[in-house]
């Protein structure tokens, strides 16, 4: 009986390690998405006041909501939000 339990226990523990590693990878990707999207908005002349939700929309693809100061681009709305799409494979951000 012990010969069956030990291999199962080893597999279960190693699976937990790879799940934690996957979470770290996703967290790193989300961080890259935030940085690339902020940079893209600033390159276009926007002042990013706050980064909103970062939503995973596909494998290594994220939508990032950026709250920007509308007065920097001549807008008069109180709340101005940009949507940035980020692809982690190509490390490319694009603002709609």
Model description:
The chain is an alpha+beta fold and 96 residues long. The protein contains one helix and four strands. The protein has one helix at 2-43; strands at residues 48-58, 61-68, 80-87, 92-95. The protein is elongated. The N and C termini lie far apart (60 Å). The model has no long low-confidence stretch (mean pLDDT 82).
What order do the helices and strands come in, and which of them pair?
Blueprint: H1 2-43, E1 48-58, E2 61-68, E3 80-87, E4 92-95
Antiparallel strand pairs: 1-2, 2-3, 3-4
Distance between the termini: 60 Å
Biggest sheet layout: 4 strands, antiparallel
Strand content: 25-35%
Number of strands: 4
Rg, rounded, reads 20 Å
Number of alpha- plus pi-helical segments: 1
Low-confidence stretches: none
Percent helix among the residues? Answer: 40-55%
Strand order of the largest sheet: 1-2-3-4
Structural class: alpha+beta
Order of H and E elements: HEEEE
Overall pLDDT score:
82
Shape from CA axes?
Answer: elongated
Name some characteristics of this structure.
96 residues; alpha+beta
């Amino acid at each position: 009986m012990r010969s069956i339990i030990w291999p199962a226990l080893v597999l279960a523990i190693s699976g937990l390690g790879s799940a934690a590693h996957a979470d770290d990878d996703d967290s790193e990707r989300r961080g890259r998405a935030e940085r690339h999207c902020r940079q893209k908005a600033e390159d276009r002349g926007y002042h990013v006041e706050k980064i909103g939700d970062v939503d995973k929309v596909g494998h290594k693809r994220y939508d990032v909501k950026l709250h920007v100061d509308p007065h920097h681009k001549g807008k008069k709305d109180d709340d101005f939000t940009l949507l940035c799409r980020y692809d982690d494979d190509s490390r490319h951000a694009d603002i709609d």
